[in-house]
User: Which sequence fits this backbone?
């Protein structure tokens, strides 16, 4: 079997608008591939869609986080408390690497609109963030991932909003954005440039998405009447405005 990947590259020429695809392995396992172009260096990156992106099973577990979570549970069973359980620097390093792998995958998953898997991977990364922050022995390790909270919250929310939009549930999407904006605004400040940059970027991006959804959302009957009322006033159609005002008031009384 030739080891030259030239034929593969020729069959899939680099196109920045079409650089990610899903494929099936010879065993029928779905994977994701990314076509890269770095000048003279051409290639294809490949990662697993499920489990760890690199296909490894650390400590015979699907994820390193699962391994250390199991160790925590065994510690609690033995001691009756989590007090005294901690993650060494090497443990944290292993978890940081796993977090990076998940991040790299959900960036690509978002581009190919695999929103369910984006939600899954961002949720796992948030669990990893919390675990490290709670149990890392060194303060530096405890705080290492905290600067990425605005970003992971944003991507998690965007994936949920996209699914809601596909279902034409704009009201749900709007509420998801408002909830995550509140979470991001109330995050404990982290002394890191990445935190400040991502917080600002996330708030701006989510507000833009919020405006888009509000424009797409069908108006309720009450909202339509209020819009017609403003138009009637602008056009000096005062009888029409009075009629609309009465209808709006009647609706308010019924709701009350």
Assistant:
């Amino acid at each position: 079997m030739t080891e030259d990947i030239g034929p593969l590259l020729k069959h899939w020429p680099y196109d920045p608008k079409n650089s990610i695809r899903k494929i099936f392995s010879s065993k029928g396992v779905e994977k994701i591939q990314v076509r890269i172009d770095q000048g003279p260096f051409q290639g294809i990156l490949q990662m697993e869609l499920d489990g760890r992106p690199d296909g490894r099973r650390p400590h015979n577990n699907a994820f390193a986080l699962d391994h250390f979570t199991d160790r925590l549970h065994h510690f609690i069973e033995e001691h009756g408390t989590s007090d005294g359980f901690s993650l060494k620097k090497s443990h944290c390093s292993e978890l940081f690497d796993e977090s990076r792998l998940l991040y790299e995958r959900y960036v690509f998953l978002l581009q190919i609109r695999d929103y369910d898997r984006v939600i899954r991977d961002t949720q796992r990364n948030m669990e990893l963030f919390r675990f490290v922050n709670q149990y890392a022995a060194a303060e530096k390790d405890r705080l290492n991932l905290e600067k990425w909270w605005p970003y992971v919250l944003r991507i998690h929310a965007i994936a949920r909003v996209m699914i809601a939009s596909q279902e034409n549930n704009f009201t749900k999407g709007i509420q998801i954005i408002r909830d995550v904006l509140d979470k991001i605004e109330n995050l404990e400040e982290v002394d890191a440039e990445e935190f400040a940059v991502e917080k600002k970027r996330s708030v701006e991006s989510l507000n833009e998405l919020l405006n888009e959804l509000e424009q797409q959302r069908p108006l309720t009957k009450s909202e339509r009447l209020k819009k017609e009322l403003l138009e009637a006033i602008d056009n000096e159609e005062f009888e029409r405005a009075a009629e609309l005002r009465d209808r709006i008031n009647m609706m308010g009384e019924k709701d009350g």
The chain has a mean pLDDT of 92. The CA atoms of residues 28 and 184 lie 40 Å apart.
